[in-house]
Write a structure and sequence with these properties.
single chain, about 35% helix
């Protein structure tokens, strides 16, 4: 017997660990739909506030053999994943993944696919598009290739707290009162608020079969990037910015510039910047035939910025562009010490007794990173972050989603929260560029003699000779960096008052 509500759908959501997917799931639940989340590691959904209300299954769209069963009983399947930032072959990866997803959906009898793609410029032949926009269009075709009705929602810049596009705009404007910029600052763009994107995505779950095509979606304002920066500055209470455009900055140079100034790393910034050379304005608003605009109208740019800044000030940023792990990042768990048989595993171990309540030590541990720093040699951490960004990595500027609380899957500067047991354990996996795999593990336990015992381990599994050379080259710095970290964490826990 079918227990689904009469108006609800059974929805499969890919990308639930990412920026849009993580916000879409609670909206679908609120609309009365049942939700199944497909994730490479369902454990990363554990700390989501909506986790108890969904089914989570393991699967990877780049590995078709893992998709069997994920579509069983599904009415609407959301495709919200991409390989942007993985390197020069991301178009091929995305094409094959979309085809595998569409074939699996068709085989299971799924009634509808919903895809969030990119708004395309008018009159530009596809070969002349940026790689990012060209790939978005190709993914849309691949999803429609098996005959499953597909709504491809094409959006330009998404304005919302934590989106990659908004973070680029925010940091460029806030950090550079005077800017020498490329010509793309005068390209016309039709941004859209993330709340309106989510409304369209939720509405698309119940579209009729004839809604089988791309739809342009955008907000009510058409602006240049220059005007967007000026209006952001006004909304943020900043003095008016001086913006000078020059013709000599190529997309590659622009992406390096964006990577140095904003938290968005170069490999992700480059395809986004390349897309800004195209004018991306909606050519139609046909979606309103099936999904009406909200009663008060679509959200304007100024209002979208205001809402995003309010969420940032109130520390209510539910998801960020960095919520999704780096495509291709390792997913193996930390090797256990007794059974480790995978080769060398280097370790730096520090233990200290703390004359403080274990809860006080934990508050300091959970507050690590972001604006709070790493409790040792800020210059050394900043230098390592800069070197990582120069090598194409994420660097330290991703910060934290929340100043005081962490959850599994959170990005934390150039680490990722792999495991957290509140009050006891924080395990971080490195996402900086390294010739190997690295973890940082911080443990807190009550001490038999009173107080607490703090245990800190840095582990490194080298890849090849370069990995071994890297560990021994860095070994002289472990004492000053990791030793100082252990001392400062325990010293801070002994002080009265809240952690920094």
């Amino acid at each position: 017997m079918d227990e689904r509500p009469p108006t609800g759908r059974h929805c499969l959501v890919t990308g639930a660990t990412g920026y849009i997917g993580g916000r879409l799931v609670p909206e679908l639940l609120a609309a009365g739909h049942r939700v199944r989340c497909l994730a490479r590691d369902p454990g990363r959904l554990r700390d989501q506030p909506w986790r108890a209300g969904v089914e989570a299954v393991a699967g990877d769209v780049t590995r078709p053999e893992t998709l069997a069963g994920a579509f069983d009983g599904v009415d609407t399947a959301y495709y919200l994943v991409h390989s942007l930032g993985t390197g020069p072959h991301f178009e091929s990866t995305d094409r094959h993944a979309a085809r595998a997803f569409a074939r699996a959906a068709a085989a299971a009898g799924v009634a509808r696919i919903v895809y969030l793609g990119g708004l395309l410029p008018a009159g530009v032949p596809e070969p002349e598009l940026s790689a990012h926009l060209r790939s978005r269009a190709e993914v849309g075709r691949a999803l429609r290739s098996t005959g499953v009705p597909t709504a491809e929602l094409r959006a330009a810049v998404i304005i919302g707290s934590g989106s990659a596009s908004f973070e680029m705009l925010r940091y460029l404007t806030e950090r550079l009162p005077v800017m020498v910029t490329p010509r793309w600052v005068d390209t016309r763009i039709q941004p859209i608020a993330v709340r309106d994107v989510l409304a369209y995505l939720v509405g698309a779950a119940t579209l009729p079969p004839e809604a089988d095509r791309p739809f342009d979606i955008g907000g009510p304002d058409v602006l240049t990037y220059r005007l967007m920066m000026h209006r952001y500055a006004e909304a943020a209470g900043l003095p008016r910015r001086l913006i000078l455009s020059v013709p000599v900055l190529s997309p590659a140079l622009s992406s390096h510039w964006v990577g140095l100034v904003t938290p968005v790393p170069g490999p992700l910034a480059r395809p986004l910047v390349e897309s800004l050379r195209h004018e991306v304005v909606c050519h139609e608003h046909d979606i309103a035939r099936w999904i009406p605009d909200p009663p008060g109208g679509l959200t304007g740019f100024d209002r979208a910025v205001e809402l995003a800044l309010r969420r940032i000030r109130d520390a209510r940023v539910d998801t960020r562009w960095s919520s999704a792990s780096l495509p291709g990042a390792p997913s193996d768990p930390l090797p256990t010490d007794p059974d480790w048989a995978g080769g060398s595993l280097y370790q730096d171990l520090r233990e200290r007794h703390v004359a403080a309540d274990p809860a006080a030590v934990w508050r300091v541990v959970e507050g690590i990173g972001g604006d709070n720093g790493w409790y040792s040699l800020p210059f050394a951490w900043a230098l390592r972050g800069t070197l990582d960004r120069l090598a194409g990595g994420v660097g330290l500027r991703r910060g934290r989603r929340d100043r005081h609380r962490l959850r599994v899957g959170d990005a934390l500067d150039f680490w990722r929260v792999e495991e957290i047991e509140p009050g006891r354990l924080l395990r971080l996996r490195a996402e900086m560029r390294l010739p190997g795999l690295a973890w940082l593990e911080l443990r807190v336990a009550p001490d038999r003699d009173g107080g607490a015992r703090y245990r800190q381990r840095a582990l490194f599994h080298p890849h090849g000779l370069a990995g071994h050379a890297y560990w021994w080259a860095m070994a002289p710095f472990h004492g000053p960096v990791f030793g100082a970290m252990a001392r400062n964490i325990t010293d801070r826990a002994r002080r009265p008052g809240p952690p920094p």
